[in-house]
Amino acid sequence: MLFGEEGGITVIGEVCQGKILPLSLELLGAAKKLAQEMNCPVSFVFAGWKMDAEVMKMKHYGIDEIFYLEDKRLQEKQKEFHREAMIGY
């Protein structure tokens, strides 16, 4: 597991209505470029509910590790659920 490995880069993706937001993908692109210069791994973390298609899409971005936290409460548009999922797991 690379997550949290010293020298690695982790991008936390933002999700809205079951989709990873374009800004998260832009950050991921910048992280990959920086990681290539630093010769280190890139991890991508996001949380949601029933986002299997998004998980599959992310596999094509050349990320070293993808972490997807799935919780039914995350279908709600309540930020505290997302914060709990990302911090509490």
3D architecture notes:
By secondary structure, the chain is of the alpha/beta class. It has helices at 22-38, 52-58, 79-88; strands at 9-12, 15-16, 19-20, 42-48, 65-70. The chain contains 3 helices and 5 strands. The longest helix has 17 residues, at 22-38. It starts with 8 loop residues before the first strand and ends with a helix. The model has no long low-confidence stretch (mean pLDDT 83).
Task: Please write out the topology.
Layout: E1 9-12, E2 15-16, E3 19-20, H1 22-38, E4 42-48, H2 52-58, E5 65-70, H3 79-88
**End-to-end gap:** 16 Å
Indicate the overall shape: elongated
Tell me the number of strands: 5
Biggest sheet strand order reads 1-4-5
Task: Profile the largest sheet.
Answer: 3 strands, parallel
Indicate the low-confidence ranges by residue numbers.
none
Question: In percent, how much strand structure appears in the residues?
Answer: 15-25%
Helix/strand class: alpha/beta
Please tally the helical runs, counting DSSP H or I stretches of 4 or more residues.
3
* Helical coverage, percent range: 25-40%
Radius of gyration: 13 Å
What is the residue-averaged pLDDT?
83
What oligomeric state do these chains adopt? single chain
What sequence of helices (H) and strands (E) makes up the elements?
EEEHEHEH
Characterize this entry briefly.
With 89 residues, the protein is an alpha/beta fold. The protein is built from three helices and five strands, in the order βββαβαβα.
